[in-house]
Write a structure and sequence with these properties.
The complex is a heterodimer of chains A (265) and B (161). By secondary structure, chain A is mainly alpha-helical. Chain A has helices at 2-35, 38-42, 44-54, 59-81, 90-128, 131-137, 142-181, 185-195, 198-226, 231-260. Chain B has 2 domains: 1-33; 39-141, no CATH class. Classes of the chains: A mainly alpha (265), B alpha/beta (161).
Chain lengths: 265, 161
């Protein structure tokens, strides 16, 4: 009996040590990526190529979901606000919830599942087909040549995608509230402008998206680089990318929100 | 894919992103309507500020002329010092009256400036001398009930004689 308990405790300890080791490995990998990104910034065409795959190809899902999220917010906000005779505040509601929370978070979740998984699968497959090792043989550093451009492309495209998401969402809210329902257009925009503050709301939203962009792409490139070089290993790494980055986005969002908006009312 | 095509799409994407940021800043946010760079600071001492918050609007004749930037509680005089930034375009006379008002019955609170007739204008860092505290709903209701009670007592006294 005591032997079983010892084995059980040993199992817990083994897992904890493994996970902490992996976290440290990921951090070292992240720092190495930053250190070796100098050459990829000098060869900016590499980053532009990756921007096409992470940014431009993610655009359509971002635009469509932003539009629909804004339209749903407009409908639901109108339903509730008109009970209090405050239906002109629907613009404020849509803009604040998109700029502060929904824009950064939903765009980052979509980005993780659309672009993050693609990055992991690509790098993982490169590893499985021994392309990364071949690069090493040719004295080309795979971190500088493959990982760093993808990382920076993700970091650049995330804030832009989130801004497009928020703008499309506000346009969707405008379509529903003003065009379809008939809320007064002037008070829709003016109430929004009088409440949404550039420094507190929009800049804080941009800071959030930058943090999410770094987190999601760092997780994606690490999982791809760390994948088992088999078909199963790549699929497992892709799944882990989406799950881990979604959880990290939600956790970071709570931490950032509690620091940014606690004292502002 | 051709290099030029990729460049074109990425250029369009980056332009769309920056355009969305500009729309958010100018159309949705208040960057286009009011900039802090061209403003001056005024201070007002209030006995009770009610629900006034930092970033509450400062209005004159219903027009937003500035914003509250800071609220401090003084432990010497036990009242609140409210700092506000007023747009440079709007100058107010020295005897301007500042009162804390409520938009609607239960709406947000703001500072209303009523201009006086003085020749001299308020300068940056000046203190507004005439202030009027916020109306606290509970105190008003309490006062009203108290008045009613004393009124009915009076009328009862009248009926006795």
């Amino acid at each position: 009996m005591p032997r079983r308990i010892v084995i059980g405790i040993r199992g817990i300890g083994h897992r904890v040590i493994d996970n902490i080791w992996r976290l440290g490995y990921a951090t070292r990998f992240f720092i190495l990526t930053l250190l070796k990104s100098g050459s990829s910034i000098r060869r900016f065409s590499l980053i532009i190529r990756e921007l096409y795959f992470t940014g431009v190809l993610t655009l359509i899902i971002i635009v469509v979901s932003g539009l629909f999220v804004g339209m749903v917010l407009g409908l639901q906000g109108y339903e509730t606000l008109q009970k209090y005779g405050a239906e002109t505040s629907v613009g404020t509601l849509v803009a604040l919830s998109l700029v502060r929370e929904l824009g950064p978070v939903v765009a980052a979740l979509l980005f993780a599942s659309r672009a993050g998984s693609a990055i992991t699968a690509e790098i993982g497959l490169m590893k499985a087909t021994e392309q990364l090792e071949a690069m090493g043989m040719m004295a080309v550093d795979p971190i500088a040549r493959v990982v760093a451009p993808r990382f920076w492309a993700g970091v650049i495209s995330m804030p832009l995608l989130a801004a497009i998401f928020s703008a499309m969402g506000i346009f969707g809210g405008y379509l529903i509230a003003v065009v379809l329902i008939g809320v007064d257009e002037g008070s829709f925009w003016s109430q929004m402008q009088s409440v949404v503050d550039f420094r507190f709301d929009i800049v804080n939203g941009i800071i959030k998206t930058c943090v999410f962009g770094v987190a999601v792409t760092a997780i994606a490139v690490f999982e791809g680089f760390d994948a088992q070089p088999t078909a199963e290993g790549v699929s497992g790494a892709t799944t882990r990318t989406v799950v881990t980055s979604s959880l990290v986005i939600l956790g970071l969002d709570f931490i950032l929100t509690s620091f940014m908006f606690r004292g502002v009312g | 894919m051709q290099r030029a095509t990729i460049d074109l799409w990425v250029g369009l994407f980056v332009m769309a992103g920056i355009g969305a940021l500009l729309i958010l800043a100018l159309k949705v946010g208040n960057l286009g309507t009011y900039s802090e760079a061209q403003s001056y600071t005024l201070t007002g001492i209030f006995e009770n500020i009610g629900g006034l918050k930092v970033r509450s609007p400062v209005k004159s004749a219903g027009v937003v002329v500035g914003r509250v930037t800071d609220i401090q509680f003084s432990t010497k005089t036990f009242d609140a010092a409210v700092t506000m930034k007023i747009d440079k375009r709007y100058a107010f006379p020295k005897d301007t009256f500042a009162s804390i008002l409520t938009s609607g019955l239960l709406g947000e609170q703001y500072i209303g400036l009523a201009a006086g007739g003085d020749e001299g204008m308020l300068k940056s860092g000046d203190k507004i001398m005439k202030t009027n505290s916020a109306l606290v709903l509970e105190e008003m209701i309490g006062q009203f009930l108290f008045d009613k009670a004393s009124e009915s007592e009076d009328s009862e006294d009248d009926s006795k004689f």
